Amino acid sequence: MFDKDNWQEIFAAIKKNKLRTFLTALGVFWGIFMLVIMLGSGAGLSNGITQGFEGTATNSFFVWTQKTSKAYKGMKPGRIFEFNLADANAIAHNIPEVETVAPQNQLGDYQGVNNVVRGLRTGGFAVNANYPVIQKINSIKIANGRFLNDLDIKEKRKVAVIGQRVYEVLFLKNENPIGQYIRINGVYFKVIGLTQTSGAGEQAQEMSERIDLPFTTFQSAFNFGDRVGWFAITSKADVPASLAEEKVIKLLKERHLVAPDDERAIGHWNMEKEFNKLTGLFAGISTLVWIVGLGTLIAGVIGVSNIMLIVVKERTKEIGIKRALGATPFEIISQLMLESVFLTTLAGYLGLVSGIALIETLSTNLPKDENSMFVNPEVKMYVAIIALLILIVAGAFAGLIPAKRAVAISPVDALRAE
Fold this sequence. Notes:
The chain is an alpha+beta fold. The protein is built from 13 helices and 14 strands. It has helices spanning 4-16, 18-51, 85-94, 150-154, 164-170, 201-208, 215-221, 241-255, 271-314, 316-324, 329-365, 381-408, 411-416, and strands at 60-65, 83-84, 98-107, 116-118, 121-123, 126-130, 141-145, 159-162, 181-184, 187-196, 210-214, 227-228, 230-235, 266-270. Strands 1, 3, 4, 5, 6, 7, 8, 9, 10, 11, 13 and 14 form a twelve-stranded mixed sheet that branches. Strands 2-12 form a two-stranded antiparallel ribbon. Helix 2 packs across helix 11 (329-365), helix 9 packs parallel to helix 12 and helix 11 runs antiparallel to helix 12 (381-408). The two termini are 29 Å apart.
């Protein structure tokens, strides 16, 4: 490897056949370049989709009531029923797989009527009733002030935490909302906190256009009594959310006299299932990218191997002279493999650097849109190192077959070659 004569021969061969060398190297360059681009693009798509799950625990699920679809114990199908706070206690005490239970209610809709007023400004926003424990399920970031606490619940304080969009509609720019009052359906609430929007897509929009009130205050202020609109629940760390979800639904059906086989009576949505689906999808995409990329790379390496066979044929007489002068088979093989490794590594390195440079340029210049489906394309360092090692090994194999063919020729036959 450190023999000066070997390197002189390699550079002389490259200089002698510039076009052939360029076209051969281009195949390897393109293979690694496309592999890097596809891996970076896949990561960008994965980051964009995963961003939509930010802010909600991946071991969480949500359950709510719907109309029954089957008769049960003398009751007709189509019956409407409601959850209550006693259900929350039953879930917490009877299902050990459950970690957190958060009852929730909602007044109005963020696309609905103008139900919130401050001075001459009005807006239509979703008004949610929550317990402080909701922060264990939804990652609620506070930009100013604080979130709800246990004293707000216990003393039924008329306080509110508002989203970013609510602030923009009801308050002047740079105005401090903390300590100010807003009127919701005729009832005044003191603003104690301003949330910072996280995540992306519809979830982020809803968070931005939401007002959170203490659950107990909401009950008395808007005459909701003991009703619960839906439950947000998380399973314990070592328990699949689907197992806890199944037991919760079974318990709620028993408590509200719903047929065990009625699949429509209780609506549910499992964050863990959706997250696992996406994880599996992107694992499949990553595998496909590696298969396609390596296939393209192998095609380039095969091109290098074919060129090396031509090189061996052209230099048969030279190889015969070396053998006659005492060169060992190992010396012949090592020189040809070195030439192959050098060509593939150089072309591959340039392709690797070009691909990473393009990915970094895209990442830097992409608009910072939280709702984007393509975010922060990137190639991990360990992936780049693995790709480079694959190139070196592939280059060695590309030169191995031509090298073995070269040493298989006897010195006498090589000297006779024209």
